[in-house]
């Protein structure tokens, strides 16, 4: 990898981190209560680890189903939040869909499990689109 490529990747990672930390998510607090907060507050104040899942609705449903089957309690124990972000033009609430492949509901009855934070506010789709473009520019075609 050339020095220019490494510098471009470093700049891209720094931009991604800065933009991600400025975005908001809705976190299920249990008892049917959600709270909107910034990613930076989850990472700094609550020491949460975040996994951003980006793709079409079918991919997100499959990923959330896999998370459901992979012992979802382990996500909470390790302070991991999944953030499903649709890259489709029509917004979709993947985590609140009903059916076999939908995300599991928490025992509190909230529509989103405790280990899923829903993207809220502006900027999520733009961030994902730029990240995909960066990946393609680095040789990750067909992502």
Task: List the defining traits of the structure above.
Glutaredoxin; alpha+beta; three-stranded antiparallel β-sheet; globular; single chain; 143 residues; two-stranded parallel ribbon
Account of the 3D structure:
This protein has 143 residues and is α+β, with helices and mostly antiparallel strands. It has a single domain, classed as Glutaredoxin. The protein is built from 5 helices and 5 strands, in the order H-E-E-H-E-H-H-E-E-H. The protein has helices at residues 3-21, 39-44, 57-69, 73-77, 124-137, and strands at residues 24-30, 33-38, 49-55, 80-86, 117-120. It is globular, with a radius of gyration of 16 Å.
* Percentage beta strand: 15-25%
Number of strand elements: 5
The computed structural class is alpha+beta
Number of domains: 1
Number of helices: 5
The poorly predicted ranges are 94-110
Major beta sheet summary: 3 strands, antiparallel
**Rg calc:** 16 Å
In the sheet with the most strands, the strands line up as 2-1-5
What CATH architecture would you give?
3-Layer(aba) Sandwich
Distance between the termini: 21 Å
CATH topology (fold) name: Glutaredoxin
Q: Which word captures the global form?
A: globular
Helix content: 25-40%
> Which class in CATH terms?
Alpha Beta
Describe the secondary-structure layout:
Elements: H1 3-21, E1 24-30, E2 33-38, H2 39-44, E3 49-55, H3 57-69, H4 73-77, E4 80-86, E5 117-120, H5 124-137
Helix pairs in contact: 1-5
TL;DR?
The chain has 143 residues and is of the alpha+beta class.
């Amino acid at each position: 990898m050339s020095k220019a490529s490494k510098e471009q990747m470093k700049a891209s990672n720094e931009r991604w981190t800065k933009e991600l930390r400025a975005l908001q998510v809705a976190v299920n607090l249990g008892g049917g209560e959600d709270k909107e907060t910034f990613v930076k507050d989850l990472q700094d104040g609550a020491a949460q680890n975040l996994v951003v899942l980006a793709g079409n609705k079918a991919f997100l449903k499959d990923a959330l189903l896999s998370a459901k089957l992979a012992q979802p309690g382990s996500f909470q124990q390790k302070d991991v939040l999944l953030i499903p972000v649709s890259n489709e033009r029509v917004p979709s609430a993947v985590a609140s869909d009903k059916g076999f492949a939908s995300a599991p509901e928490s025992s509190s009855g909230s529509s989103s499990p405790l280990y899923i934070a829903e993207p809220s506010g502006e900027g999520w789709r733009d961030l994902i689109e730029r990240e995909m473009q960066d990946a393609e520019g680095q040789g990750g075609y067909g992502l």
